[in-house]
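Recall the central idea of this unit: under ordinary conditions, the amino acid sequence of a chain determines the structure it adopts. In this exercise we apply that idea directly, starting from the sequence alone.
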Amino acid sequence: MSFDLQFGLPDLNPEPNTYDVIIIGGGPAGTSAAIYTARADLRTLVIDKGLTAGALGITGKISNYPGIPGPISGAELVRTMRQQAESFGATFLADKVIGVDLHSTPKMVMAGTNTFYGKVVILATGSMGRTNTIPGESELLGRGVSYCATCDGAFFRNKTVAVIGNNDEALEEALFLTRFADKVYLIAPTPSLKASESLASEVAGHPRIEIRLATSLREIVGNGQVEGLRIRPRGGDESFLPVSGVFVYLQGGQPIVDYLMGQLQTSPEGCLLVDHERQTSIPGVFAVGDLLCSHVKQAVIAASDGVIAAIAAEKHIRERKALVVDWN
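Accordingly, the structure predicted from this sequence is:
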């Protein structure tokens, strides 16, 4: 049995930047949702920060994902899932969502490069948000500290900046900043970059980027404006690095919900609350995966959340009274 398309046939001439379904996050939950919504002929956009921006993407070896003989890296598994979603017509965009309006009709999703509109939004941003900040980070936020190069990069034309991080997102942002900055330091806390080989090679070969591996950020220094960083290489002495801006892409273990701007209720632990169809308190807005904090953190469980939300999203858009399961 497959999805019945007699209700709400797809628009053959859709407006630019307007979709049936916008999925924020491209890990196993978001990509599984995209497979099902795209296969149901729903125009689907997935906005994601990069292959290695999520928990699965940075996993080195997976041997227990059903149907995938291991070992396989998390990034490879995500890439395979994305290719499957794309084969059904889903569009993937490498960008960062900085805000949403979930109460508007259609719902609005603001990314660093553009604004998009959708009948349904599925939240799948995972739980790698930070709770602990670096000394000076909060005080200088908006005064040289930023979390979005595509938003703020132009303010640092002909200046020296630093990017803090080691994954695809950090490297993509470092490359973007070379359009404006004279010099970009990439400060990675690990001895090697946790990014795709092609991207790491591009960054390593860029004349405006200098990589500092195994280096920790101890403090962001400035008096009303960022003036520099106190950094310490592993096994070395602390030093001062003069920069005008710092873009932070470090990871933690908390649900990433900052872009929601308080529009959805969360538990005391910061988790989103949903019903059995993974729908939040706002009709047409679904949340899946590690945002729910309701299960063991396994890729296959997050993927099942995405499927449940996708089928429920199809029901919502086509105004069905019951879920229609896709067995084909």
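The chain has two domains: 18-129+254-317, 145-248.
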